Structures are given as structure tokens and as C-alpha cells.
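Request:
You are asked to prepare a plain-text protein record giving the amino acid sequence and the C-alpha cells, at your earliest convenience.
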Amino acid sequence: MRQKRWSVADVARELERGRKSYKRHAWADAYQALSLADKVVPLAVEDLELLAMSAYMIARDDDYLRALDRAYHAYLDAGESVRAVRCAFWLGLRLLFRGETGRATGWLARAKRLIECEERDCVEAGYLLLPVVQQHIDAGEWEAAYAAAGNAAEIGDRFGEADLIACARHLQGLVLMQQGQVEQGLRLLDEAMLAVTAGELSPLVTGLIYCSVIDGCQQVYAVDRAREWTTALARWCEAQPEMVSFTGKCLVHRAEIMQLHGAWPEALVEARRGCERFEKGIDPQRPASAFYQLAEIHRLQGDFTAAEEAYRSASRWGWEPQPGLALLRMAQGRVEIAAGAIRRVVSATTDPLQLARLLPACVDIMLDAGEIEDAHAACQTLKEITDRFDTGLLGAIAAHAQGAVELAEGDAQAALGSLRRALQGWEQVKAPYMTARTRLLVGLACRALADEEGASLELDAACAVFEQLGAVPDLARLESLTKGPLSAHPHGLTPRELQVLRLIATGRTNKVIAAELFLSQRTVDRHVSNIFTKLTLPSRAAATAYAYEHKLI
């Protein structure tokens, strides 16, 4: 077939189509038209920048870098070094995001050298401060990071550069939140988001700030804001059906919010879409977070095989599968493995907000393993983090953990106070699953205090929510924990110790119990010792008699 011969009019028509498509945010059409024109006649530098941005928005990363590289050299050849600096900055930033530190540093150094050769002040100097801010953040140098971001914002204000102002202000907000000044930080994020939602920023900066702000809100458990901005991000993505960049992250954020609010089937669909976009070649971005979110929902629903596969996929793509994988092992009865995994990741984590994400699971696993002292220590660390960052939801998480520990220690009255505080937090953010988990513990505390009617109300309410959500493991746990009239014996045994006591009463040896529960014999020996101490029992025969007398089996 003979190749079409392009005329000047043909090229002009494609250029016009590409420019109009760009203005409409029809990114794929803009990319196609500008690329066709570029094959015939090399694009002018302004059109090269349009081509680069269109390539970015449809996740053609290498094409984005090539077009921006060409624009850089074109500006340099034309003697417009300041415009070349901006291209070099975006090249360096994108390469940093890709983990190509050497090339990124080279481009940023090149941009800095060109700026130093300029005898006039320019807004690009402010952009070059943004990687410096990030370097300070990575090093934990919060005051230096805040100051550098403030300098960038001042330059943006002086030149009226909305993109730079929003980037710098939101970075200042993130720094303040890391320092424990959560409300002040959130106010700066809100200020940046006003420019985002008003459409005042470039498409690339809009997407970057959406994702960064939502991540920041989720780190400090600012759920209401995360939900608000995730909804806005979804609307922005839906208005640009040809866009690929940012849409995968949007799906994961939506899945996280849906899971919190109890819409598990919908959350599963969104997480699965995030995985499928990569598998089908629609989105080249690694789907690690989508696989992790998929695994979490499968675990909560009791589909342990699917959960394990998804956790492994997340790990293959570079995502730490904890604490979810450890919680899966606990649900499978493999508590020794769960305890080892959670101890490993907690001991290796120094960032307090990342630690806060791990410690609730650590408390649950340590309690299940009968390691009450370790659970107490994890709970105390979580409380210290909560006191520092003081967000409502994080307070509810810490109060739930404290109540669980107090209940395991046999102080049901104190546990009730902690658990009531947790309930207030869960109900405020409309988190039905966590509300039900807390009401389960409230029911057990009521039974330990001989309030059978109160216990029945709480346990029935928890059961109804678990059934509605399809939380199969929690339904099984509820049945296990509430077996027998617990009000008759406020013994203070942990759930694992109760399980061991029942097996002792059937005549099993410690070795057999260890095999059945996937525990080491040493751990079972410790559980048996704890049971004898708490119940003031002299022997296995006495323990068996106690179990039958109190109808535990």
C-alpha cells in the first residue's frame, strides 16, 4: 500500500486538531494528532511541550521524556535558557519519581547551572527548590524543609505562579503534619486544594497534588478530608476519559474509602480495576497498592487463598505486605509466624505515622499469642504517637487497642471506658466494621462484669454488622469468644489461652496442642503456665475440671 503524501495543509490540520484536543483535555487524541504532524515536520517548541504533556497524561512516560528533552534543546538553541530550565526541572522530577537518581540529578544540576548564569531573578529558581525540600524531608530535616518550601512559595507569590505556590504550600503542610502540627498542616493542604479544585493549575500539577494531599491526609487519619478530596479526584478523572495517569491511584483511594465505610463489594471492584488496568496494558504504573488493597478485602471476607495471592503480588511489585499478611497468618491460626512477621516490621520502622499503621495489628497478634506484655508495650507506643498527632480517628484506633489490652489483663471496667471512646471515633467517621469489632469487645467486657443483658445487646449488634458485611472470620471469632457463659468467670484469660484450656480439657498434650494451633511447644507451655497462674490451678486435671465446671467446652 502506497504511503500517504502529506501536504502543508494536512500538517496544519493535524496541528490544529492536536491543539484543540489538548485544550479539551482529550489527551489521546491530542497525542495522536501532534505525533502525526511531528513525523512530517518537526514540531515547534511550544507544540513539543503540548506533545510531552499529552504523552504524560496517557502514561506514555518515555515519549514524555523524549519530547521534553527535545523542547529543552530547542529552547537552548533559541537562546531561551530560562524556558529550557523549566523543561530540565520537569525531566529531573519525573526521573526522580521513576527512581533514576543519576539521570535526575544530572538534569537538575544542569538546570541549576543555567539559572546561575542568568543575571535576572526568575520563577524557575523557585521550582528548583522543590527537590531540595524533598531531600530535607527524606532526611527528616523538618525545619530546613519548611524553610525551603517557604522560599519557593515566596518566589511563586512574587511571580504569580499558581503551580509553584500550590506545590510549595502543600509541601509545607506535609512537613507540619510530620512534626505533629496536624491542624496547621491540613489548613495549608486545604489552601493548595482550593487552587486544584478551582482549575487554576496545570493538569500535571493538579494530578500530582491530588495524589500527594490524599496520601498525606490518610497518613494522619484525616478521613473526612481524604474522602472529600478522593471524591473530587474521581470527578476530575471522570471528566477526562482518555487520561491514564493518576486514575490507577484514584481507584485505590476510592477502594480504601469504600472499605472503611463498609462498601466492601464496591471496594473490591475498584481495587480489582486498579490491578486489571496494569494487567491489560492500560496503565503501566505498578499496581502494588491496588493488589494490597485487594488482599485486605479478601482477608476481611475470609477468602484467604485469594488474599494470600494478592499479598504476594503486592510484594512482587515492591509493596510491604505487612501488617495485612501477618493478620492473615493470625486468622489462619499460624500465630507464631504472624508474631515473627509483625515484630520484624515494627522493629525496623522508625517513622511514627508508619508505625501507627502497624501497631494495632501488633496488639491484636500479641494478644492472640498470649504475649500480653508485648501487646501492652505496643499499645503504649501507639498512645504516645496518638498524643503527638492528635487526630480523631487515630485516637479511636489507640482507644480500641487499649481496651483490648485492658480486657485481656482482666480489667473489664477500664476496658469499657477505653472502648466507649473508640466507639465515638468510629461512629463519627461512619466505620461500621471497626464499630462492630469494638462492640464485640464491649460485649465481652459486659459479660465479665456480669451484665448479661448488656453483653447480649452488644454482641448481637456486632454479629448483625459482621453478617451484613460478610466478615466471615469475625463471625467465627465472635462465636469462639462467646462460647459458654463468660459472665460466670471473669478469669482474664486471653482468647488464645481459652482455646488452649479447652484443648487441655480434651486430654491433649502440649505437643499435640502446638501442632493443632501451629504454635511452638514453648509457646504452648507458656500459655499453660499463664492459665494455671490466672486461675490458681495446680494441675492439668484441675484445669479440665474448671473448664467443665464453667461450661467452657
